[in-house]
Amino acid sequence: MGMGSNTIPPWVDEKIIDREKRKKKDLDINAQIKDLQSENEEPKKRIKELEDELRRNKK
């Protein structure tokens, strides 16, 4: 029942696996955030253009 010195205890494996899963999930979330930010850039530019046009037309 004893573990040899060359084996990793199961709870250590679980911690490593959980850590790797969290890292992957964090990377996926960060990629989604970047995608959403880039998607927002186009509408932001268009809004700024329209606001500028509105200011010019008010004068």
Characterise this structure:
This protein has one domain (9-59). It has one helix spanning 10-58. The longest helix has 49 residues, at 10-58. By secondary structure, it is mainly alpha-helical. It has one helix and no strands. The model has no long low-confidence stretch (mean pLDDT 87). The termini are far apart.
Range of helix content:
over 70%
- How many beta-strand segments? 0
Oligomer: single chain
How much of the sequence lies in strands comes to under 5%
Number of DSSP helical runs: 1
Q: CA-to-CA gap between the ends?
A: 86 Å
Mean model confidence by pLDDT: 87
The major β-sheet equals: none
Structural domain tally: 1
User: What is the string of helix and strand elements?
Assistant: H
List keywords for this structure.
59 residues, mainly alpha, 0% strand
Helices, strands, pairings?
Elements: H1 10-58
A few lines on this structure:
The chain is an all-alpha fold and 59 residues long. The protein has one domain.
